[in-house]
Amino acid sequence: MKGGGGGGDKVEAEILEPYQLSFSDLLDRKRCQLISRNVMEALGPNGPGLLCITGVIGSALLRRKLLPMARKLALLDPDKRNRILKEHHLGSDVPLKNPERLVSSFAMHLHYQPPPSSNSSLWYDPGSGVGTTLDSLEDDDDDFNNLGVVFRELGFCMMELGLSIARVCDREIGGGFLEGTLLDSCTAKGRLIHYHSPADQSFLREEAQRMRKHPISGKYRNGSPFNLWQQWHYDYGIFTILTDPLFLSSHSCHDCNLITSHSYLRIFHPSNNKFYMVKTPQDSFIVQIGESADILSNGKLRSTLHCVCRPDQLEHISRETFAVFLQPKWSHTFSFSEHTMEHIRSGSLQRRPILDTDEVSKADIHNIVPPLSSRIRDGMTFAEFSRETTKQYYGGSGLQSNR
Prior knowledge:
Layout: E1 2-4, E2 13-16, E3 20-22, H1 23-27, H2 29-43, E4 50-54, H3 59-74, H4 78-87, E5 103-111, H5 130-138, H6 147-173, H7 177-185, E6 187-195, H8 198-212, E7 228-233, E8 239-243, E9 246-249, E10 265-269, E11 274-278, E12 285-289, H9 291-296, E13 305-309, E14 317-326, H10 338-346, H11 382-394
Parallel strand pairs: 2-11, 3-4
Antiparallel strand pairs: 1-2, 4-12, 5-6, 6-14, 7-13, 8-12, 8-14, 9-14, 10-11, 10-13
Helix pairs in contact: 2-6, 3-6, 6-7
């Protein structure tokens, strides 16, 4: 961990560089055993709840192809965008008709197919034909020609990374519950996400006014509280796998990562009782713990409280990322021991009170993040937990319904 400035931040941000492991470590059984303790320290109750994986073969090209499509899709003519999304079997889980939106998201359900052999390698195998796919991408100049293909290829790669981390955790915790739960689900949700720059928002407002020929309805003017792209929250699945973000300039649409000193992903580290900006190597992947893993492991894994900050003075910089959410199947039933229920009731799964500092008092995180104990009960299915969590965050009377 180190101090450092960050792309227009008013307050100097303290930087967290998460534990890094190499893709090759996950392919070698002996090396995988050697790193398992470090993995648990990063993801366990005394760690930050996330780590990063570097050196994933073939992923850099997929990332460079996919992430710029997020901005292009977000700013595209709505009719053309709908046609492209339909062609590639993508949808959206945000109101794209809202010109004041801070985020555009394009989603697809990814269905995992286990390899025919239990000792198969991870996603990339020189004999699997993936190399041919990557070669064809090098020569492709059409903006959206391979949108669906690249989305799925990168998504499956990230699913495999999550499964490999699940195996490491299972060996340390015992029981094999994480990998088994993920394989039982056999599905994940991929989201290609564009975080709008102020310049993007101005463009969308102008386009909306031009199309409607009258001012935008006041119901869409929700602004940006606390200068965040995404408000404080916990993910509620098992793992969230994220690409290292890409920053683009609306002036040139070129990669602007060099002008940012971190990812603008901000986390709260309960053991240190401090906030950090996360900094990761280029082309790496972040593995982040969700509340379902927290519950299933009886607190041996610790979910990550996080938000995405928006640069104050970089008016033309947008943020692009791709996330894959690994979760139990919808019908999975949570069954708690009395020990786990006591942890949930006491709130100890989400640790001690946050220090009231000048930096965070405005956000008043405890008032916008509903406690886990209010959203989960013994015998609840994952689908019910998902609905209750979404309701308490974003429903009509939810803590973030107007944010």
